[in-house]
Write a structure and sequence with these properties.
elongated, alpha/beta, five-stranded mixed sheet, about 150 residues
């Protein structure tokens, strides 16, 4: 097996809370390439030592994986995988909104007090509605071919 230049590393369990393994993905081929029997840093370090040349590694937020990768592949670029980037973003937005809760509540109350929404009812007949484009095409075809 050729060592991938771009590697995905993540842990998984067949049943949550049970034994976790580590899945390694070749990100260029979009294929799993190995399953490590646990999620220990030493196990990942051993695999990386026997597969030199990895340049980029996506991973979760585990410091165990981060330390293992740094110790064996100090020049490899480490990035959070897409799921964890979105999770980080969600948590940051949630913290920000929590910190702004009083201001948001105050603004909502102000807007509701200032709001003077007028509801106007308009009666439309079928004659008031535009002719559908398909009907216009049909009418145009019939009109131009009528006397041929």
């Amino acid at each position: 097996m050729e060592t991938p230049r771009r590697l995905g590393v993540d842990d998984f369990a067949f049943k949550k809370g049970r034994n976790y393994d580590t899945l390694l993905i070749d990100l260029d081929q979009h294929k799993p390439i190995d399953v490590l029997p646990d999620r220990e840093g030493k196990t990942l370090e051993d695999w990386l030592r026997t597969h030199p040349g990895v340049e980029l590694i996506t991973r979760n937020r585990s410091s165990i994986y981060a330390n293992a990768i740094t110790s064996v592949c100090p020049n490899a670029t480490q990035v959070a995988d897409r799921w964890h980037l979105l999770k980080n973003l969600f948590e940051a937005v949630e913290r920000f909104l929590d910190s702004q809760r009083p201001a948001i509540r105050e603004a909502a109350q102000f807007i509701s007090q200032q709001s003077t929404i007028r509801i106007t009812t308009v009666s439309l007949t079928e004659m008031d509605l535009p002719i559908p484009a398909t009907q216009q095409l049909l009418d145009n075809q019939l009109g131009s071919n009528q006397f041929i």
